Amino acid sequence: MPKVTINDRTVEVEKGATLVDAALKVGVQIPHYCYHPRLSVVGQCRMCLVDIWDRGRKMPKLQAACSMKVENDNWVVRTDTPEVQEAQKGMMEFFLINHPLDCPICDQAGECGLQDYSFKHGVAFSRFQFEDKRTYPGRERIPLGSNVILNMNRCIQCTRCVRFTQEISQTAELGFFNRGARAEIGTFPGKPLENHLSTCVVDICPVGALTSTRFRFAERVFYLDKKPSICTGCEVGCNVTMEHRRGKIKRYKPRFNPEVNDYWMCDYGRSTFERYEKLPRLAAVRVRPEATGNGGFYGGWKEALDLVHRRLREANGSSVAILGSAFLTTEEAYLLNKLAGALGTPHRSVPVDLGPTWTIPNLKGGISGQEQAPNRRGAELVGLTPGEVREGGTLLDATALLKGDAAAQADVVIVSDSDFSEAAHNPQVVERLRRAKLLIVFGWCDSPLAKVADIALPVSTHAEKDGTFVNVEWRLQHFGAAFPAPGQTRPLVDVLVDLLARYDASWSKLTTGQVFDRLASEHPAFAGLSWDDIPAVGVTLNVPQARAAVDAATASAVQEI
Amino acid sequence: MSVSEPVVQKDQVNAPPLPADVKAQIAELRTRYPTSEAVLLPALHLAQSAWGGWLPDEAIASVAAELNLPVSKVYGVVTFYDLYHQHPVGRHRIRVCTNLSCQLRGAEEIMEAVQEETRVREDEVTPDGRCSYVHFECLGSCDTAPMMMVDETYHENLTPQRAREIVRGLK
Amino acid sequence: MFEPVLTRNVGNPDALTLKGYKKAGGYEALAKAIKMEPDGIIEEVKKSGLRGRGGAGFSAGLKWSFIPKDKKPKYLVCNADESEPGTFKDRLLMEYDPHQLIEGCAICCWAVQANTCYIYIRGEYTKSAEILERALKEAYEGGILGKSMMGSGFELNMYVHRGAGAYICGEETGMLESLEGKRGQPRVKPPFPAVVGAFGAPTVINNVETLCNVPHIITRGADWFKGIGTDERNTGPKLYAISGHVERPGTYEHPIGITFREMLEKAGGMYKGGNLKAFIPGGASAPILPADQIDIKMDFDTVAKAGSMLGSAAVIVMDDTTCMVRSVARLAKFFNHESCGQCTPCREGTNWMELILKRLEHGEGTEADGEKLLSICQHIAGNSLCALGDAAVGPVKSLVERFMPEIEQHVRERRCPFPERRYFGKNVGNGA
Predict the structure, then answer these.
(1) Does A190 contact B57 at a Cβ distance shorter than 8 Å?
(2) So what's the pLDDT on residue B5?
(3) Which residues in chain C touch residue B104, judged by CB atoms under 8 angstroms apart?
C-alpha cells in the first residue's frame, strides 16, 4: 500500500485514496466544500489546495487535494505553507464577496462551512466595499419539493446536491443551470425534488442554501445536545444523531455507519420523533377503581406493581395474552417473555405495520426496509413468538386479538406498548381489546388504548432509555438515553425487572446491561456478546439468515466531518 | 393517528412528441456518436428551429424524453450555452459583436443604430414579432469590424447606416 | 521571399471542390502518409517542431505520442471553436480550404490510429460548417473517408459537430464535455485527454491551424518546416490575425517570428495614421504590450520572455485614442460572461474584476483599486480549475503593471480622460 507524508506525518493508505481522506487519517483537516466521500470528485470549490513535492520537486501550482489520488510513495504534502494559506484566504474572500450576511436568520449558523473555514482560514475584514452583491431575485425561499427549501443567494455552487440526486438517489431532480456568476441550482418546472432521500441534500449542503422544511427556524444548533441513537421508523435501523434540548427532540440527522445507512436516512425516518411531542403523553400511573377490587387507588409504582402482581396471580396464567411490540428493545422483549414464562402462557406475539419499501443506498448495494418498526426481529429472537396451545384451544395472538374476538376469551391482556402500531389508535381495535376482563397497558403514549386500560403504566420513549434493536439484516445496534423521562415515567426494563422480582428475587434491580448479558447467555444468536463490548457500528447476530444476508466485506470508509 | 406523510408532489412534465422530421434527423445523428447523450447539442439546435427559434419547456422535455436523459440535465445544457434561447426572440435574432476589436472600430455606434431602428431595448422582441437584438461576444470576424450576425448570416464592415438598412429589411 | 503555405489556396475557389483541391496538389500528403508507419509520422511531426496553434503552443508531435497504442477506440477532436477575441484565422482556413483541414485530420488519425474524428466547430460559424459538410460529403464520395481511407483498409469517419455558443468549450476538456452532450465544464486533470478523453477513450485535440500544417510537413519534410521561423523551438509558417486600429485588418501568413513592426507595415500601418499606444500579441488572454515593444519577434518564446504570450496570434492594435481601462474592462466583461461557474476563483474573481474595472471606467474608482486587482489576480492565477482563470488575469494584470498612470488618472479626475471616439457620421473622432 502506498505511503504519503502530510505535514511531516506519514500514513499508509489504499491505492487510489484521495489526499483529503489520507490527511484525515493523520489528523490533518484539509478544508473542502465540494468533496464528499460518496460523490464524484469535481475539484470545484478550490478550497482544498495544497503544496505537493513529487520526488523532491515542488509542483509548480497548488493542487486540489480532493482530486489527487495516492498511487505511489512519491508525494510529500504540506497544508501549512504561506502559499497554501494565501490561497485559502483568497478562496474564502471569493466565497464571501457575494454571500449574504444572513447568519442571524440562517439555520446553518453553528454548523456552517463558511463560518468554520472563515474563522480558521479567512480574513477578518472585507474588501468588497463599493460593489453590489450578486443576488438571485425571487429565489430566496423556493420550495424545491415538499421537504427542502432553497435560498439561492446563499449557495456557493459546490454542486454536492446536484451530484447527490444524480448519483446517490439517482432521481436527477436537481440540475446546475446557467453559467458563470449566474450559475444556480434548481429543478425543472414540473419535476420537483421528491424522493425518499430528499432531505439528505440539506445535510450535505455546507451552507444554509438548502434548508429542511420541518426544521426551518426550529432551533439554534448550538443549543442542541447531541446523542447517538437509532431511528425507529423502520426495520433498517438507520443510525441517527438525536438532537434535543430540554427533553424535546428537535431533529434527527443521519449518523455515519458504513454497515447500515452509510451517510443517509430517509425523510420519513426524520419525522418519526415528532410523534413524541404531537401525541398526548402518558406520564402518570393510572388505575381504574374497578381494577383494584376494593375502591380507589391511591398509590404510586410500588402499589401499582403489587396490584398487577396480585391480579396476574389470581388469573388463570394460560389465559393471559401478551401483545408485544416491534418498538420494544430486545431487553424489554426478553423480560416480557420471562413474565410470560412465569405465567405459563403461550399467547405471545409481535404485531408490526408494513409500509412501502424504501432503500437506503450504501456501499454494499443498499439496505431496504418495509416493516415500520425497528425491532420485530429482536423481540422474536428472545422468545416473543407464539407458544404451543393445548388441544382445542385458540391462540390469542396479534391477529386474533386485533381482528377477532380473542380478547373476550382472555382473563388478562397485557399490551406492552400503547403505540405498538396504527391499530392502537383504531377505535374498533381498542373496543375489541377492551373486551378483556383486565386490560393492562404499558406505554409512553396516552393513546385511546391507554385511556380505556384498567391499569396504564407510563414508560419511556426510546430517547429516555438504553437498549438494543436488531435490524433487517440481523444487526444488533445499541443506543442510550438522551434525557430523563417526565413525570412518573420509568424505563420499561426497570418496571419489568421490578415486577419479575416479585416472582424471583434474582431479577431485582438489574440494569439494562445486566439484562442484556443474561439474555446473551441464554440465546445462541447472541452468543459471545456483552453489553460493554457492542461495537459502535453494531454487530451481526449469529443467526443463519444473518450470515446469508449480510456481506462479509466491510467497507473501508472515512468519517465525514 | 399516524405521523403525517409528506405531501408528495407529483411530476407534471409535459413532453409532447417531437416533429417527425426532427425525430428522423436525430435518428441519423445517433449513428455518429457512441452515446445518445452526445446527440443532445445537435438535437437542441434542431428542436429550436422546429419551435420557432426558441426552446419552450415542452421542447426541452420532448428532447429529454427522446434521448432518455433527465430533464434537469437537458435544462442545464440549454441554459449553459448562448445560442439556445428560453424565451421568444422574434423571427430574426440580431447579435451585434461588441468585443474589443469591434469596440475599437465603432461597435457601440452600431448598437445605437440598431436600437434606434428597432425602438426596443436589448433582448426585447419588437411589437410586430420581427426581431430582437443583443450585444454578443467575439464572432470571429474582427478583420471586418464592426459587424453583426442576423440569424445565420454575418454582416460585415458595417456602418450605422448599413446596419439600419439591414434591420429595416427584416420581415 | 516567403511563399504562402497554409493560405496558398485562398483565392482559388476551385480548391473548395475535391477535384480542384487535388489538382492543386491536395491529398498527396495523405497518399504518402498511409504508406508510412504511424509512428514514423509522429516522429516527423515531432521533428518539425510544430507547436499547437490554438493558444497553448504545446508540441503537436509530443501530444500525439501520448496516445497509448493498445487501447481502442481512439478519437481525434479538431478544435474549431475559435472564440478567443481577436482570432479569426481558423475561419479563413475552413471557409477557403476545407480539404486542407480534412487532409490534416486524416493524417493525424492515421498516425494515432483513431477511426473517428469530430470537428468541433463553434455554433456561430454556420457558413464554415456548411462548407465543411460539403467538403466532407465529397471526401466520402471520393473514397478519401469511409470504410477504407484512400483504399488503405483503415476506416475513418469524420463528422462536423456544432457547438452552441460558449468560449469555455475551446478548452480541451470543456470541449470533450460539450461533445459528449453535457455542459461545457472543464474536467479535473489528471487524467489528461490522451488517457481519458472523449467517451472515456484516448483522444487527441488539436487546433485547426495546427492540423492544416500537417499535410505540408509530410510532403515537404520536417527539415523544410524547421527552416521557416526563428529557431528550432519556433518553427513553421504562422497565420496572424490582425485587427483593431490597423489600416488593413485581416489574416496574414508569415514565417513565425516576424517582428510586430513588419507585420504592422504589411497590414497597412496604423488606422488613419494614428500613433501606436499598445497591442495585444495573442488574443484577449495575452498580457498587453506597450508600444515600445514594437520590434518584438512574434514567436512563442520571445513573446513569453517579454511577459506576454503568442497564444493564438490574434493581434489587436490600439492607438493613442484608446482608453486602456475601457478596453480591459470590456475584456473582463468577456471573461466574466464566459466563465463556466464551476470553480470559485474564476466565477467570483472574474465577476469582481469586471465590477472594479467598470467602476474605474465610470470614474468611481479608488486609489486601492489597482492593488486590489493585482491581489485578485494573484488569488485566481494558478488556483482555478482550468486556464480561463489564468487567461482572465492576463490583460488585467498587465493593465495594472504597465498602465498604472492611466488608472490613477481615472481615479484622480473621477472620469475617463479619453473621450468616447466616434467612427461614423458627425464628430468622427481624434486621429481622423
Answers:
(1) yes
(2) 47
(3) 243-245, 316, 318, 322, 327
Asked whether the predicted pLDDT for residue B20 surpasses 70, the reply is yes
Given B80, B113, B132, the domain boundary residue is: B80
* Chains contacting A (3+ CB pairs below 8 angstroms): B, C
Contact status of C379 with chain A (Cβ, < 8 Å): yes
What distances in angstroms separate CA C233 from CA C54, C229, C230, one per listed residue?
16, 9, 8
Q: Across the interface, do B6 and A271 touch by the CB < 8 Å criterion?
A: yes
pLDDT digits (tens, 9 = 90+) for A36-46: 999 999 999 99
| Cell representation of residue C210 | 495546427
Shortest CA gap C385–chain A (Å): 7
Q: How far apart are CA A234 and CA A369, in angstroms?
A: 6
Q: How many domains does chain B have?
A: 2
Q: Cβ contact (<8 Å) for A190 and B70?
A: no
Instruction: Say how many CB pairs under 8 Å bridge A and C.
Output: 105
CATH number for the segment(s) A3-80: 3.10.20.740
**Chain C contact present for B139, CB below 8 A:** yes
Residue B62 lies in a domain: yes
Condensed to tens digits (0 to 9), the pLDDT of residues C223-237 reads 999 999 999 899 999
Structural domain includes residue B111: yes
> Could you tell me which of A114, A50, A44, A128 has the C-alpha nearest to residue C376?
A128
State the pLDDT confidence band at C428, using cuts at 50, 70 and 90: low
Decide if domain A286-528 falls under CATH 3.40.50.740: yes
Largest CA distance in chain B: 77
Grid coordinates given for C132: 465543411
- pLDDT tens digits for C13-69? 999 999 999 999 999 999 999 999 999 999 999 999 999 999 999 999 999 999 999
Q: How far apart are CA B51 and CA B88, in angstroms?
A: 10
What's the confidence (pLDDT) of residue B10? 63
Let me know how long chain B is: 171
Closest residue, chain A, to B5 (C-alpha): A268
Domain hosting residue B75, numbered range: 20-80
Closest among B165, B84, B168, B81 to B126, alpha carbons compared: B168
Q: Angle, to 10 degrees, between the axis of helix C89-96 and the axis of helix C126-141? A: 40
Nine-digit cell string for C342: 464551476
In terms of domains, do B130 and B62 share one?
no
Complete domains list, chain C, with CATH: 14-226 (3.40.50.11540), 232-319 (3.10.20.600), 324-413 (1.20.1440.230)
Query: Domain limits of chain A?
Result: 3-80, 92-278, 286-528
Task: Tell me: do B132 and B76 sit in the same domain.
Answer: no
Residue in A closest to B14 by C-alpha: A190
Which of the residues B143, B150, B157, B164 would you substitute to probe the C interface, choosing the one with the greatest number of C C-beta atoms within 10 Å?
A: B143
Lowest-pLDDT range of A288-292, B15-19, C147-151, C394-398: A288-292
Q: How far apart are the first and last CA of chain A?
A: 25
267-296 of C, contacting A, C-beta below 8 A: none
Reduced to 3 states, what is the DSSP secondary structure of residue A544?
Answer: helix
Please tell me whether residue A352 adopts helix, strand or coil conformation.
Answer: coil
- Parts of chain A with a pLDDT under 70: 545-561
Alpha helices in A344-444 (DSSP H): 376-381, 398-403, 406-409, 427-434
Alpha helices in A123-199 (DSSP H): 160-163
- In this structure, the strands spanning B153-155 and B148-150 are antiparallel
C318 touches chain B (CB under 8 A): yes
What is the CATH class of A92-278? alpha beta
Check if C426 contacts B (Cβ < 8 Å). no
Q: Are residues B159 and B99 in the same domain?
A: yes
Whether the ω angle into residue C98 lies within 30 degrees of 0, i.e. cis, is no
For residue A192, list chain B residues with Cβ-Cβ distance below 8 A.
Answer: 9, 11
- Would residue B76 count as lying in a domain? yes
